[in-house]
Each structure stands twice: as structure tokens, then as C-alpha cells.
Write a structure and sequence with these properties.
16 helices, Rossmann fold, about 45% helix, about 325 residues
């Protein structure tokens, strides 16, 4: 046993796992109660103010300036990133840095979205004053409508009171979950109201697995002489040679107009083995109306078709004519799967 493994065992030897799990369950229960209260508020007291907030943010001609201190600031950073990635330009301004020059980042074309559970965060004072002085709209996300922040704001999103998961009622836990959830609600409502599509999303997410899933089929498919194709009347003796050369495990069968009429797969060959297979035509063996995709759909959507149909390759067609073929291995290599 390694020294690290021995130390780990020693550290946890006296730990009561049941007690730890019970603590985790209490935390989830309390945070879940906070989310339930927020959900109820969004069908009650928050209905009008939430809709007004979405309208105000959507009509913003500049950027959404998100701010908050401490844990609320961490929430604000995430919400600014989510807004920016979903079609609503946003920027996080730290309250303390704002007092030392970063107020210059805020323009009269912007809207300020300030997070503070208590609404009495002293560090927000200069941003609030700046908002009032230069008529920059301020939306407050707070649990205290009558707080300094709430009174100064043009619009208040009043979060319902909820018990923190921290047994001392001190560490922001339930409160930050609720703030984060409401921020996500704003971002998604804005996304939907703007008609922001997956294609738009790709512009802001070119990297990583998410970027890979936002590639188009046309970016990944094999083209031209890589396609395994055969005429309607080709003998299976010839067709098998084509299938073997192209190595996709399938063969597209074309009608007289060059449209994809069917597909011959390795499974079709096995099912017809012993039936004078080599003397038959592709039309006799093929499966008609195969699954296909167009080159302008997302690779992630093509993967769903492949998985749902339990197949390994898809022909890509335009106006019924094959223009490419996509194998599940192409999706794996691109990081889509």
C-alpha cells in the first residue's frame, strides 16, 4: 500500500459515512426548498417584475453590467458569462474595483444587474450612486425589497426568504443557489425571446466538446469519391467489392435519377448469405428508405439519429442525392460523442 493510500485510510477510518450522507441530504433538502420557493414566486409575486426585467435587458443597447460582492459576486460572474454566451452581451464589474476606476466601464446604454442577498452590501454603494447620477437602469436581485439596494433600484427581483443549508445560518448556500437559478432564468428567457439558435450558439463556443457538438454534418462528412455508391442494377458481386474498398460497412444504392433509393449494409449481406447472393442485384438486397441527414444539421443531431437507429453510418443527402457519408467514428474523432 502506498503512503498516500495509507494516509487516506487513516484520515477516514473514524468517519461516520452515514452522518456525512445525512448532512448532504439535509443540504439538498434545504436548497431544494429554496428553489421550490423561487418557483412559487415566479408564478406569484415575481411574475410582473421578472417579465419587466426580461424586457429591460432585451432592449438594452449596450451591455448588461453584472455586479455583486462575495459569494453573490461569484454568482454574478457566472451569470455574466452565461448571458454573454447566449446572445446578451454582459460584463462583470467588481464593486471594489468600480470604486477605483472601473465605473468607467459602465455607459448610459447599459443596464446594471446587481446581486445582493441582504441588499445592504456597502461595496455596491458607488455603483448604485453612479446608476442614479447617470440614469443607468438598475435591476436589483435581493431578498429585501426595502433594503438600500432595493429602494435605489429601478426594478427589484425580490427573492423569497429561505433557510441557509449551513447549520449556523451563515455560509451562503441556499441563497446563492436561488440567485444562480434566477440568473439562469433571466438568461434563458432572453435567449428564447431573441430567437437565439444553436447556430448562433456555435459562434461563441468554437472550442472543446461543446464546440465539437456544434459542428455541422457538412464539416465532418466524407465526400466525392469516398462515397460507397452503386447503381440500382449492379450485381452484388461488384457491389461487395465497392463496399470493401470504401470500408464504411454499407453501400448506397442509386435509382436512375441519381437519388438514394436504398442502402446495403453488412447486416443485409449476412441475412442474404446462401441465397445466391453474388448473382443478385443491389435492388434485391437493399433496405429501402434508409435514414439520412442533410449537411446543414448539427453533428450532435446526427449522433442522436445514429444512436436512436442503432446504426454506424448515415448518408448525407441534398434533394435526395447523396453528397456525403458520416460514420460514428468521425463523430468520435471530432469529440462529438
Amino acid at each position: 500500500m502506498s503512503m498516500a493510500a495509507g494516509l487516506k485510510r487513516e484520515l477516514f477510518s473514524g468517519h461516520d459515512s452515514a452522518q456525512a450522507i445525512a448532512s448532504a441530504m439535509r443540504t439538498l433538502e434545504l436548497e431544494g426548498e429554496g428553489l421550490s420557493a423561487l418557483k412559487a414566486a415566479l408564478t406569484g409575486d415575481l411574475v410582473e417584475s421578472f417579465a419587466e426585467a426580461v424586457d429591460l435587458l432585451r432592449s438594452c443597447r449596450g451591455r448588461v453590467i453584472v455586479t455583486g460582492m462575495g459569494k453573490s459576486g461569484h454568482v454574478g460572474l457566472k451569470i455574466a458569462a452565461t448571458l454573454s454566451s447566449t446572445g446578451t452581451p454582459a460584463y462583470f464589474v467588481h464593486p471594489s474595483e468600480a470604486s477605483h476606476g472601473d465605473l468607467g466601464m459602465i455607459t448610459q446604454q447599459d443596464v446594471i444587474l446587481a446581486f445582493s442577498w441582504s441588499g445592504e452590501t456597502a461595496e455596491l454603494g458607488n455603483i448604485v450612486s453612479f446608476s442614479s447620477r447617470f440614469a443607468v437602469p438598475l435591476i436589483a436581485v435581493t431578498s429585501n425589497r426595502d433594503s438600500t439596494l432595493g429602494i435605489a433600484a429601478e426594478l427589484v427581483l425580490a427573492l423569497p426568504q429561505a433557510k441557509e443549508a449551513c447549520p449556523h445560518g451563515l455560509a451562503p448556500t441556499t441563497s446563492t443557489v436561488m440567485q444562480l437559478a434566477l440568473g439562469d432564468c433571466l438568461a434563458i428567457a432572453l435567449l428564447e425571446s431573441k430567437g437565439f439558435t444553436a447556430v448562433d450558439f456555435k459562434v461563441f463556443h468554437p472550442g472543446g466538446q461543446l464546440g465539437a457538438r456544434l459542428k455541422f454534418v457538412g464539416d465532418l462528412m466524407h465526400k466525392a469519391d469516398r462515397l460507397p455508391l452503386a447503381d440500382f442494377d449492379m450485381s452484388m458481386a461488384e457491389a461487395i467489392v465497392v463496399m470493401t474498398e470504401k470500408a464504411f460497412g454499407c453501400l448506397g444504392v442509386l435509382d436512375g435519377d441519381g437519388r438514394l433509393a436504398g442502402i446495403v449494409t453488412d447486416g443485409d449481406l449476412r441475412r442474404h448469405m446462401g441465397d445466391g447472393l453474388l448473382d443478385q442485384r443491389t435492388a434485391d438486397i437493399m433496405t429501402a428508405n434508409p435514414k439520412t441527414v442533410s449537411p446543414d444539421i448539427l453533428a450532435s443531431a446526427a449522433l442522436e439519429v445514429i444512436n436512436a437507429s442503432s446504426i454506424t453510418a448515415l448518408f448525407v443527402v441534398e434533394d435526395g442525392r447523396p453528397v456525403g457519408i458520416l460514420h460514428v467514428h468521425d463523430l468520435l474523432r471530432a469529440g462529438v460523442a
